Amino acid sequence: MKKENYTTKDAASSIAMGLGNVFVGLFMKGMIFAVYSFLYQFRLFTLDSSLWWVWVLCFFADDFTYYWFHRWSHTIRFLWASHVVHHSSQYYNLSTALRQTWTGNLTGTFLFWAWMPILGFHPLMVMTMQSISLLYQFWIHTEVIRKMPAFFEAVFNTPSHHRVHHASDYGYLDRNHAGILITWDRLFGTFTPETTPPTYGLTKNIHTYNPIRIATHEWLSLWKDMKGASSWKLSLAYLFRPPGWQPSQPPKAREKTARPKIS
């Protein structure tokens, strides 16, 4: 790992966020399994987990779901308030992979996968595949690997593709949302190759190593915007509009109050 791509304080913050995520997960995993198990009772099919092709289907179903969940986490502020944690480091190394949300599952993001047990995938299969996806994404948080072989770059998410995703540069914002397969980005028009060195972090960085601040800063900002809205409709709009969205204002006022899009 290159020295200029790493600081002890930043890495410690990322590790603290990862430990907090594990701690919350200890309490949430049982509840998530219970919800998936409840839904599984109403399944449309029974997909036999002893069959190899059922696992292949589960892999594609999980990866497809992750792509849309990840993409919407960049375009819906309620989801972004949790996901922004992972983008808050201005460094890109393996410790950055550990910088995970404390609030994601608490706000129900696991429900994006609810269709899978309803379809017929056993809850253990769904949760196992989610774990495999998360483990895969650990190794791609590095600058040590510049490019994988061309066939691998064409199909899978790689360090190069994911560096683009973590960039705050205008041409890289909200691109490459893949979990394991980069093919979803290619298919749905959100793929951008790495052509220039990325600038990591947010378009408006928070400049803190405090884990509590990292975990909550966007929730606090969202609450302030909603509280200050002139109507309940505008208040709800802050929840579901993209990060950085502000109501229409006269040009002079907008110049003073508008915030850049955060990704």
Structural features:
263 residues, mainly alpha, 52% helix, globular, Fatty_acid_hydroxylase, glyceryl-ether monooxygenase activity, transmembrane, iron ion binding, transmembrane helix
Q: Main sheet, how many strands, which sense, barrel?
A: none
Strand fraction equals under 5%
- Uncertain runs are 250-263
The oligomeric state is: single chain
Backbone structural class: mainly alpha
- How many β strands by DSSP? 0
Overall pLDDT, averaged? Answer: 93
Distance between the ends: 25 Å
DSSP helical segment count: 12
Percent of residues in helices comes to: 40-55%
H/E series: HHHHHHHHHHHH
Number of domains: 1
Radius of gyration from CA coordinates: 19 Å
Shape, principal axes of CA atoms: globular
Membrane topology: Multi-pass membrane protein
Organism: Chitinophaga caeni
Subcellular location: Endomembrane system
Main location: membrane
Description:
It is a multi-pass membrane protein. Residues 55-190 form the Fatty acid hydroxylase domain. The chain is mostly helical and 263 residues long. It has one domain (3-188). It contains twelve helices and no strands. It has helices at 8-40, 52-72, 77-83, 94-97, 115-119, 123-138, 150-155, 159-165, 183-188, 211-227, 232-240, 251-257. α10 (211-227) runs antiparallel to α11 (232-240). The radius of gyration is 19 Å and the shape is globular. 33% of the residues are buried. The model is unreliable at 250-263 (pLDDT under 50).
